[in-house]
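@channel sequence for tomorrow's demo:
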Amino acid sequence: MTKAEYINERQFAEQYGIAVGTLQRWRLLGQGPEYRKFGKAVKYSTRSIETWIESLPSGGAGVPSSALKSA
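structure tokens (generated this afternoon):
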């Protein structure tokens, strides 16, 4: 079994173009990818992020455009 790689919410937000506030709201609402708490730190496993992304409908309907940072 390989060790899971974890990233924090800021890294997640930067990598996927989703605002940190959106990630926080999703956690509050029980949405988005699975996460773990290490003390007060919120971490996402890269494996759970990939699984969550694969579960989204194709065509981008799974994440509203308002959740994404504008370029």
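heads up for whoever presents: The radius of gyration is 12 Å.
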